[in-house]
Amino acid sequence: MMISLPNLSEEQAAELLPEGMILLGYRGSIAHNMYIPSTDPNSIDDRDLMGVFIAPVEHYIGFGRDDVKERFIGEWDVVSYEVRKYIKLLTKCNPNVLSLLWLSDEHLIYEHPLGRRLRKNKQLFVTKAAYHSFVGYAQGQFKRMTHFNQEARTRMAELEQILTARGIDSNDLKATQEQLDRWSDLGDVIESYRALKRKYYSGGYMGAKRKELVSRVGYDSKNAAHLIRLLRMGVEFLQDGDLKVARSDSEELLTIKRGEWPLDDVKAEAERLFDLAEKAYLASPLPAVPDMQAAEALCRELIADYYGW
What is the CATH number of the domain that holds 36? Predict the structure, then answer.
């Protein structure tokens, strides 16, 4: 089935999305009601999607192997997980992949009957392991919020100089075949720069604006908003097993994202939430670990039913 995406041709959508898709929806800022559109001068957001797909049959009974596919076109950033890889991440309460199961209908783009079955079984993955995954991710955001690796910054500047000298725009990173033929290392330069850009500025086409925002407010306010959101979601999940993806506190989170909170206020709220998360973990009624046999059975059924085995 051809899945259409706003403002993209069928060919572009096909380039972004692997075959065998059973579930596709928004992730990131759109899913959390925190998206700032590109028409806004303060926008630093991509349009992020997450999908789950059944891989070609060779993946399961041959030599083929392709667990994760990530593609970019303009503001679109799409990551798709093979279903077995996806379910393994679910059993670890990975915050990013869990969100797809709790998406509101308005943020779902495509749901195959097998994808619907996966979402209906989301309670299989509700466990106290969420404490370690959510808090672990939040701690990473806490460090990145204020500490940009100086060595990485220097390396990015060096790579930008190389790209500029060779006529490559560091924002879109598109090279012609003639340029690639002329400089044999150009592909590696582009990939190295893209990797650093994604790690420190969430990649996509908004990197330059995000760097400007970091310089202006003195810390990475987008990471700060992620930090506070993750901790709040984790506390809520530990308390009642419900992942509140579409945030009712989105307006407050947006003020953090725009850099309107002093850094000390962000740190104080984070410390309060880290403490609250620990208390929620100790008092949580959720099971300690998932039912791995049931999760594996679901995985087998999805693949077998897709292929009619």
Answer: 3.30.460
Q: Are residues 137 and 276 both part of a single domain? A: yes
The 10s digit of each residue's pLDDT in 5-50 is 888 888 888 888 999 999 999 998 899 999 877 666 666 667 899 9
In a domain, 5, yes or no: no
Q: Which of 21-30, 163-172, 196-205 has the least mean pLDDT?
A: 196-205
- Per-residue pLDDT reduced to its tens digit, 62-75: 776 778 888 888 87
pTM: 0.77
The answer as to whether 108 is a domain residue is yes
What long-range pairs does 57-65 form, CB within 8 A, spacing at least 24?
Answer: 57/307, 60/303
Same domain, 201 and 267: no
Are residues 100 and 72 part of one domain?
yes
Contacts 24+ apart (CB under 8 A), 277-282: 277/131, 277/134, 277/135, 277/231, 277/234, 277/235, 277/238, 278/131, 280/131, 280/234, 280/235, 280/238, 280/239, 281/128, 281/131, 281/238
Question: Range of 303's domain?
Answer: 10-126+289-307
